[in-house]
Design goal:
A hairpin with an 8-residue loop joins strand 8 and strand 9. The protein is globular and about 60 Å long. It has a seven-stranded mixed sheet, sandwiched between helices. Strands 2-3 form a two-stranded antiparallel ribbon. Helices cover 41% and strands 16% of the residues. The chain has nine helices and nine strands. Helix 6 runs antiparallel to helix 8. It has a domain of 173 residues: Rossmann fold (3-Layer(aba) Sandwich), CATH 3.40.50. It is α/β, with parallel strands linked by helices.
Length: 260
């Protein structure tokens, strides 16, 4: 594969947890404002309907992903879907805020969850938003195989791409922190200091954003990963979903047990 397996700073074990939370808070704010993943809601709803799932296990949730918007839109038998937020390095403060705002539709798994080895008690359709690129090919296969072995559906969604236009937007995204930071809640003086005085947050977002684009799997590479799985009785759908957001397509891969 021609992707570049560099590291993202905020996902490293040595990265300070308090600063990691600031990074995921900034990412979460951007997702909430832009509603970048809103166009794939019908895709996800159809996948849930295909398997009859009433719950979602969101992996690598960071500050909560798109769920503050999605939690009331997705339905199973006319009822809201229940979502579990999980992460290897959970941002518990941000996740708890989303849990409270969701009025019971979202729960936060209290422990660390490795997407390659999801606890058996977490049953439901698995999702990953802007996080699958964190995994090397062997790890990515392990994530998919773990879902298959548990007979759970899985949906991978990435708005980052290995394309000059997307990489250029990462610079704009980093500059936007100087405008949006005062709007991020809860308000913290430390966030202002790390943005305007010592601009660590914008620099980390820029570096990790560019690396994210360079690491993102293309549809044909996702197909290659799926082809190497032991996944008898599974069906997969891989492609790019067009959006109006800067005309950036969302790369997706959805797999679930075949239905009769």
């Amino acid at each position: 594969m021609r992707r570049i397996q560099w590291i993202e700073l905020h996902e490293q074990p040595w990265f300070p947890s308090s600063l990691r939370d600031e990074i995921t808070d900034a990412l979460q704010f951007g997702l909430n404002v832009l509603k970048a993943y809103a166009p794939i809601a019908p895709l996800l709803q159809n996948a849930l309907a295909s398997v009859g799932s009433q719950s979602i296990i969101d992996m690598c949730s960071g500050g909560g992903g798109p769920w503050s918007d999605f939690s009331c839109k997705l339905r199973a038998d006319g009822q809201p879907i229940h979502i579990w937020l999980t992460d290897k390095y959970p941002n518990l403060r941000a996740s708890q805020r989303i849990r409270i705002a969701s009025k019971g539709h979202i729960s936060v798994y209290p422990g660390a969850v490795d997407a390659m080895n999801v606890p058996r008690e977490l049953n439901g359709f698995r999702t990953m938003f802007t996080s699958f690129h964190h995994f090397s090919p062997s790890e990515a296969r392990a994530v998919l195989q773990n879902a298959v072995d548990a007979r759970q559906g899985i949906g991978i969604f990435e708005i980052t791409r290995r394309a000059p236009s997307t990489i250029a937007l990462m610079f704009l995204w980093a500059l936007m922190q100087f405008v949006s930071t005062p709007l991020i809640r809860p308000f913290r003086l430390s966030r202002l200091f790390l943005t305007y005085v010592v601009p660590i947050i914008p620099l980390v977002l820029l570096f990790d954003g560019v690396v994210s684009c360079l690491r993102t799997y293309r549809p044909q590479e996702l197909c290659e990963l799926i082809g190497e799985l032991n996944a008898t009785g599974y069906q997969w759908r891989v492609g790019e979903h067009a959006t109006v957001f800067w005309k950036l397509p969302i790369t997706y891969s959805i797999g679930h047990p075949k239905t009769t």
